[in-house]
Design goal:
Number of strands: 0
Order of helices and strands: HHHHHH
Distance between the termini: 28 Å
Number of domains: 1
Largest sheet: none
Shape: flat
Structural class: mainly alpha
Helix content: over 70%
Amino acid sequence: MQSRWASHVFGMATGASIIAAAVLRLMNRKHDALFVGQWAPTLLGLGALSRLIGDRGLRTPILGQEASWAFASAALGSIVTSAFWHSKGYRRHGLFVGQWAPTLMVAAALARIYNPD
């Protein structure tokens, strides 16, 4: 039940990110729109990952769990670093680092799903 709730929250945050990016773009704040909009796939990935982690029927080997947490931690590091650079005014650096987060979240989900047994 908690994983379903978390995935709904991340789903709503994904929609809010898309709407906020569209509004910022209409206000001609292109860099801010890119910064906010790039988090939509990451938030969607977090929702999927929370659903996978909460699914008790999914048996993931220890190595897969460790890899999943490592990728999720790297994605979080990418988000924090991107926000830091963006807050300091280095928007290009923030966008460059932030674009890695969705890929890392997909890798975290795939590490959970993949079971070589």
